Amino acid sequence: MTIAVTGATGHLGRLAVEALLTRGVAAGDIVAAVRSPEKAADLSARGVQVREADYTKPDTLATAFSGVRRLLLISSSEVGQRLAQHKNAIDAAKAAGVDLIAYTSILRARTSPMKLAAEHKATEEAIEESGLTYTFLRNGWYVENYTENLAPALQFGAILGSAGDGRIAAATRADYAEAAAAVIAGEGHENAVYELGGSVPFTMSDVAAEVSRQSGREVVYRDLPPSEYVKALVDAGLPEGFAEILADSDVNVARGHLDTDSVDLSRLIGRPSTPLADAVAVALKE
Q1: Domain NmrA-like, which positions (predicted)?
Q2: For labeling, which of 75, 86, 87, 187 is most exposed (least CB within 10 Å)?
Q3: Dihedral sign, CA of 62, 11, 198, 109?
Q4: Is residue 61 in some structural domain?
């Protein structure tokens, strides 16, 4: 059975390929579908099939999905262009006769008010309309959203945001990748919807406290009105549109939209999700 993973040189996609290999899937049965095959030379060297697959070039998708039985569709990173790109992949999967498509969506995609949820909701609907058998992997926030760039927090002694005391059921990319591999290589997940979140939710104040504890430097969480948070992000060099999306996400954290009591993630991976403390420890070593 041939399994394809799109975006296989991205953060989540590469971890998903690794998780499939760890589960015992033969390298030759894995297709790393990537925009730039040269970036996947290491995977090719290990026996993984590397095929060009650009969401904006349907002909590459048709070739990449040839002979594929199961497809892990990693959502595009290009916010605002995702739906059109995903539809190209869905059409190509249907034409190729893919048996199952697993899509990395967002927590409670159909009801979430987050701006980021709109394209995920529309993609889920497009997959259903295609008639393909599916699994929706509704991923919560990545812990790495908070840990992979701690230098400014350590430099200035503060983490900024507009999340208030909202709880975040985040997990690491590796946790979500492991769940995706369990689904795409496993059985019994046809037309299932999984709400995936971390086992122990945390607040932004918890993140600041953990960074302080492990770094030995005082770091606090400074909650800002959304407009001020947008300004701070723009001043730090982010495009205004992206800054507004981040602020919107934080506002929805405060309202509880990135918290969940679902145990789907821990059940799929057979263990609790990676603790915040472990993720912070890794980040501080890098």
Answers
A1: 2-247
A2: 187
A3: negative
A4: yes
